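SAMPLE LOG
Freezer: B-3
Tube label: C17
Construct: single chain, 77 aa
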Amino acid sequence: MIEALKDNTLVDKAGGRFKLCTLIQRRLEQLIEGDRPLIDRQNRSDLEVVIEEIKQDLITLEFVGEGEQNEQSEALL
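STRUCTURE (predicted):
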């Protein structure tokens, strides 16, 4: 298991477990589709790259319509 996932620091940075899970999933999709990592890969897996990007505050999760009651809100990186 990745040590960073055992600590609540990432959960706090993302704003909760659901948002962290969503952020990781969406960023993994981007990497799998061919987007370049924002850090040097250094033989790390895609998941390890995403975790490091979050730790370095390089990616965050925002919701369209956040703060409003909007049924069409969707998560964006």
